[in-house]
Design goal:
The complex is a heterodimer.
Chain A: E1 9-13, E2 18-23, E3 31-38, E4 45-50, E5 55-56, E6 61-64, E7 70-75, E8 84-92, E9 107-112
Parallel strand pairs in A: 1-9
Antiparallel strand pairs in A: 2-7, 3-4, 3-8, 5-6, 6-7, 8-9
Chain B: E1 5-7, E2 10-13, E3 19-24, E4 31-38, E5 42-50, E6 53-57, E7 64-68, E8 74-78, E9 87-94, E10 104-105, E11 109-113
Parallel strand pairs in B: 2-11
Antiparallel strand pairs in B: 1-3, 3-8, 4-5, 4-9, 5-6, 7-8, 9-10, 9-11
The chains are: A mainly beta, B mainly beta.
């Protein structure tokens, strides 16, 4: 079962920042927070992940609260191509002990022109 | 392009038949994962192989089986197919080294059972 809670849907105006929340109140110390997205029926696309610290890459920023019970994915300037289902996943990921990704229902983000 | 290659991209077959889906992981990745996505079920984890050994099983039916070969490619075998097996099947791979490593997905194989 998914260990995260996300709103089922969100809208965002094109060019504005999209802030996608995720609750993971039962996260363990060795679990990372991962974000993936799926555009229509394409393969899920990796966005970003983090353990404790905030992370940023060319696609997005990940803000993790100090108690690690929630996080926010930020797409700084959303475009129409960012319309997708976004999945927040917690996962143990250490060496050969990797666990699979368990997907929940995610948040359907609609970017509106 | 994630570097994970899946074949075939599309497959139509009849009920009762058997099919094999193939996956080539990213170069050097030792872990392969299989997922099923049907319209009403979302993305469901099926099975995980690491360097040829089965590591974890999810919601995989007994009619389905998988294996990972010495060259690290993997095959998912689906037999006695039913209409409800129509779905997108994704393969994904990840490396062994490093904490917090990333899983990369292929573009999937569309299976239609008629």
């Amino acid at each position: 079962d998914a260990k995260t809670t996300q709103p089922p849907s969100m809208d965002c105006a094109e060019g504005r920042a999209a802030n996608l929340p995720c609750n993971h109140s039962t996260i363990s110390g060795n679990e990372y927070v991962y974000w993936y997205r799926q555009i229509h029926s394409q393969g899920p696309q990796y966005i970003i992940h983090g353990l404790k610290n905030n992370e940023t890459n060319e696609m997005a920023s990940l803000i993790i609260t100090e108690d690690r019970k929630s996080s926010t994915l930020i797409l700084p300037h959303a475009t129409l191509r960012d319309t997708a289902v976004y999945y927040c996943i917690v996962r143990v990921a250490i060496g050969s002990g990797n666990t699979p990704l368990v997907f929940g229902k995610g948040t359907r983000l609609s970017v509106i022109a | 392009d994630s570097g994970v290659t899946q074949t075939p991209k599309h497959l139509i077959t009849a009920t009762g038949q058997r099919v094999t889906l193939r996956c080539s992981p990213r170069s050097g990745d030792l872990s392969v994962y299989w997922y099923q996505q049907s319209l009403d079920q979302g993305l469901q984890f099926l099975i995980h192989y690491y360097n040829g050994e089965e590591r974890a099983k999810g919601n995989i039916l007994e009619r389905f089986s998988a294996q990972q070969f010495p060259d690290l490619h993997s095959e998912l075998n689906l037999s006695s197919l039913e209409l409800g097996d129509s779905a997108l099947y994704f393969c994904a791979s990840s490396s062994r080294t490093g904490a917090g490593n990333t899983i990369y997905f292929g573009e999937g194989s569309w299976l239609t059972v008629v």
